Amino acid sequence: MSLPGVLRSLLTTPGPSGYEGAAATVFREACAPLASEVATDANGSTVARLAGTGAGPSVAVMGHIDEIGLIVSHIDDKGFLWFLSIGGWDPQILVGQRVDVITRNGVIPGVAGRKPIHLLDEDERKRVPKLKDLHIDIGARDGDEARAMAAVGDVAVISAEPVELPNGRVVSRSMDNRIGCFVAYEALRLLAEDGPPGAGDFYAIAVNHEETNFQGAITTAYAVEPDVALVIDVTHETGAPGVDEKENGRHPYGSGPAVVRGATLSPRVFDGLLAAAEAEDIPYTVEATGRATGTDADAVVKSRAGIATGSLGVPCRYMHSAVEMVQLDDVLATARLCAAFARRPQ
Q1: In 143, 283, 308, 312, which residue has its Cα 20 to 30 A from 294's Cα atom?
Q2: Distances, alpha carbon 53 to alpha carbons 5, 29, 200, in Å
């Protein structure tokens, strides 16, 4: 199973929180031939609507288009770029990574560096590095040259092309959560091809700012006001070493989406997802949460007077790193489940 072209384009287009424009354009252009209309709001979230053929409830499938990244906070007189995080980073992952710095004049390459191990004292070697210990080197001779190349407020992402591995597994940065946006697109494609008989409007949505403050989910859910929302994100694949199934449940590769069941989510939507999965022979697991989900679902469920919300997670290893890994049949099974749910009477 090879990497779909739309997913490859989503994964390779930079778009940290607040700077998602290029990635949103990929989503918008992919959805445009399939949807009745495509719109982008003031925040940069994208909504692709497929007109329904009946009086059933409207269903939205939502992923977040932003990824974690870095933002330049200072350029020193030696030409080094110092930065803050956009979203949650494990700093030791950044050491030695190649990065792409997105500037007004285009993308420039750089590396995330720190003092080499040969120069670290014994105590420093034992400590995990902090973000403030790292810098970006873009090869500038001095501060003037660096400031001519980049500016405070420019953002950066790890430079990492997708790599296809055996068993339909793919490694890339930004799987979290271009996967969710691809699922929304793919569900739209399935419904546009086969038609949603008797169903209400369907929305494929790519929202921004999930990694920072759920801003896109808050405003877009308010504006669209779907009857039902399915929020797609990644969840922890539990076959990897060190992942405790007693805490995280069992969600191995090949088991399809994890359908979340929890205190804040709609039991009726959960039951509908399981019924659709069983009717269409789509694999799934169940993931439990006692409080918030940590995804855009936490914002959507509270929008306006409340939206009946479900949450699905695609199993993913090595989250928030340069080597996030998914298995493609899980991704496609998630999209099939979303489409099957939208077709069924609610």
Answers
A1: 283
A2: 29, 24, 6
Half-sphere exposure of residue 275: CA atoms within 13 angstroms, side-chain side = 12
Residues identified as active-site: 210
CA–centroid distance for 12 within its chain: 13
Task: Write the pLDDT tens digit of every residue in 237-267.
Answer: 998 998 888 888 999 999 999 999 999 999 9
H or E stretch including 157? strand 155-158
Superfamily name and number for 69-158: Peptidase M42, domain 2 (2.40.30.40)
268 C-beta neighbours (distance < 10 Å), count: 12
Map out the domains of the chain as residue ranges: 5-67+173-343, 69-158
CATH of 5-67+173-343 among 3.50.50.60, 3.40.630.10, 3.40.980.10, 3.40.50.150: 3.40.630.10
Locate tokens 């932003």: which residue? 66
User: Residue 77 is inside which H or E element, if any?
Assistant: none
Averaged over 150-168, what is the pLDDT?
96
Cis ω before 105 (30° cut-off from 0): no
CB of 1 closer than 8 Å to CB of 51? no
11-35 as b/e, with b when 16 or more CB fall inside 10 Å? bbbbbbbbbbeebbbbbbebbeebb
pLDDT of 127 above 80: no
Question: What span, in angstroms and rounded, lies between the C-alpha atoms of 35 and 4?
Answer: 19
Structural contact between residues 85 and 111, judged by C-beta atoms closer than 8 angstroms = no
